[in-house]
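Folding problem:
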Amino acid sequence: MYRFLLSRQWVILTLVGLVLIPVMIKLGFWQFHRHESRVAHNDLVARSLTAEPVPVTELTKPGRPVPGGDVWRQVTARGTFDTKDEVVVRQRTDKDGQRQGYYVLTPLVLDGGQTVLVNRGWIPPGDDLTKFPEVPAPPSGKVSVTGRLKADETDSSGIKNTKGLPPRQVMRINSQTQAQALGRPVLGGYVELTEPDPGTKGPQVVPEPDHDSIGPHMAYAVQWWLFAAFVPVGWAILVRRERRDRAEEAAKAARAAAAADGPDPEVARTAPAAE
């Protein structure tokens, strides 16, 4: 009754099922690892945001990328803002994610002579995107700032580095690029300003990153594993259904053949004659 499993159709169906099972299991583990990475990232961000601020020069040096474990760390810096070399970063959204505008990127010349880039926050785009916008001035003289240490934006950030932009406008926040433009060493990464908050008169401070959401990856992992478990169950259901259908067809064929052959002669001879 199971000889049909050797047919071309069932051999192909069985092979497809055998291939799908490990593929779905692997996809489930891929989503599970993404879930673990997201949880680890959230833990890192939470620890970094609540850690005691340290001087920025303790975590980064000129020409060096910011280590992954130090991203989002709270840092402090003291120096003087260099407004003549200030630039704006295009295509950035406000804290609600509704309006596009600019980030204001201002070099801060530290007391020791080194320079660090400071993202002072978001401003609206203005009327003419081909010109440098009107930017609220930072505090003059010596100033102490606190912010989150961020890594340089590179190709891996997904931000396209468009060329031919208007003067003093950039697409990425990158310390090495700005170091070339400034003609002096710049600490790796940049500081995302959190204090002092300029309030309504200055750029809109960039809000904290979301470190509570874990995303749908765990749910996707469970779904892939359920799909993998359903493949053999579905295959067994189809086999039983095929076997039942074939048995019913064989029974019908047998009854049809018996009816076509007429009554059994022995039965006809022994049957009582009609009165």
Summary: The longest strand covers residues 100-110. The mean pLDDT is 88.
